[in-house]
Amino acid sequence: MAGGPPRRAPPVARGLRRLRRALRRVVQSRERNAARRLRDGVPLRLLLRGGFGEEMGWRGYALPHLLERYSTTAAALVVGVGWAVWHLPLFFVQGTRQSGPFAVYLLGVVGLSVVLAWLYVRAKGSVLLVAVFHAQWNVFDSGVLFALSGESPLLAPAASAAVVWAAALLLVALDGETMRSSRPGTAPPGRGSPAE
């Protein structure tokens, strides 16, 4: 019987092989999709939504130039107002994170600017550290605070502003040397920085 038709596996074995192949394709597809999402989406989102792009401009460029003339607190206030005004158009676009009264947002952003300026100066000009803090604040602010706000659209932005201003005032009170200094040592290279 060597020349007879090839033997077929029992139906259960064939079904198990098909199931194993299908599962392997699903796993491989998910691995490829996960790798693609990681490669294509996550770093870009972290850069754009995490604050790194903003921090390159606000703390990486504007703040050091303002620190040449103003104290850390004054420079932070100027940057904060500019930062809030930069986001003003988003208050007119449906579906963005900006909600509630702009005045409350302005207050929160200016307070956060004071905290970030302190961190920038104390970290000797590390924009990366400030960007990581900014990203973490966005997670806390939009996640925890907005989850606690429930039906009141004003509660989350007001709570956010209260938290950052409490931190900002604490920093100004406890680290007055840094916050009132007019030359904290983070001026741009070639303009009076201590690295020269």
How are the SSEs placed, and which strands pair?
Layout: H1 11-40, H2 42-49, H3 52-67, H4 72-87, H5 102-122, H6 127-149, H7 155-174, H8 176-180
Helix pairs in contact: 3-4, 3-6, 4-5, 5-6, 5-7, 6-7
The SS-based structural class is: mainly alpha
**What's the story with the biggest beta sheet?**
none
Number of helices: 8
Mean pLDDT: 78
**Total strand segments:** 0
* Secondary-structure element order, N to C: HHHHHHHH
Strand content: under 5%
Radius of gyration: 26 Å
> Into which percent range does the helicity of residues fall?
over 70%
Structural shape: elongated
Number of folding domains? 2
Distance between the termini: 92 Å
Q: What are the low-pLDDT stretches, counting only 5+ consecutive residues below 50? A: 190-196
Provide an overview of this structure.
The chain is mainly alpha-helical and 196 residues long. The chain folds into two domains: 11-40; 50-180, no CATH class. Helix content is 71%, strand content 0%. The chain contains eight helices and no strands. It has helices at residues 11-40, 42-49, 52-67, 72-87, 102-122, 127-149, 155-174, 176-180. Helix 3 packs across helix 6 (127-149). It starts with 10 loop residues before the first helix and ends in a 16-residue tail after the last helix.
Task: Write a brief structural summary.
This protein has about 200 residues and is mostly helical. The protein has helices at about 10-40, 40-50, 50-65, 70-85, 100-120, 125-150, 155-175, 175-180.
